[in-house]
Amino acid sequence: MEDLYLRIEDYLDGLLPEAERAAFEAALQHDEALAEAFQLVSEARRRLTPDTQAGAQEQALKQTFAELKGKYFEAPTPPLVARQKWKLNFWLPAVAATLGLLGFVWWWLRPPLSERLYADYRNFPEAAFTNRAENSPLGKAESAFKQKDYAAAETALQTWLQQSPDDTEARFFYGLALLEQGKSEAARQVFSALFNPPNAWTPELQWYTALSFLQENRILECKAVLQNINPGKPHFDTAQQLLKALP
């Protein structure tokens, strides 16, 4: 399992492949835990760099004074260097202890891997229903999806499906609204009912069924669905990436 800290370090050092770098940057936009961890690591690197430089500068300064002392003086090292050394000796352990504590807290509180991967891969298609009026249930559902108000989207789509139960697109987005609220089992029931007969929504149904298992940390079931996405179909490449990221 890839260590998230090393992943952040690799990103900051420019070591991630282009595809992984793009996925990482996309995750930063909506994964608050990842964004906080990224800020923590970035700040730690920024704060440690001056200390490292100061140590090198101190060593060079001490060497210079030693050479001057041998040539011109018998006096001890000037007080300025002693004061700099005292400051470094005082602050370095404090900074290291603080960063270590913050790192431990972040590691302890970070979300489980399944939650982080779900957040990375959950990109929903845009809800853009055709033949709908703004105040109709479909219009309200579309607006709710744009605002990421999935409870309101669920309610609006329930109303619409009572009068148009054969609207496959509406039923698919109804399943997505359930999924995003953590109603994984209910979402799978909606997706399962749409599988037969196979239709244009089948690749999407496979992908989001896999994500519903991932949301519940049911890794084996998630992998089984991902492995059934055929080459050349939508989400195949992304499914292969997710399979590699799973434990």
Task: Give the structure's gist in a few sentences.
This protein has 247 residues and is mostly helical. Helix content is 75%, strand content 0%.
Can you put this structure into words, describing what you see?
The protein is mainly alpha-helical. The chain folds into 2 domains: 4-110; 119-245, Serine Threonine Protein Phosphatase 5, Tetratricopeptide repeat, CATH 1.25.40.10. The chain is built from 12 helices and no strands. Mean pLDDT is 76; it is low at 49-54, 71-78 and 104-110.
Shape: globular
CATH superfamily of the largest domain: Tetratricopeptide repeat domain
Unreliable stretches (pLDDT < 50, length at least 5) are 49-54, 71-78, 104-110
What is the annotated CATH architecture of the largest domain? Alpha Horseshoe
* Residue share in β-strands: under 5%
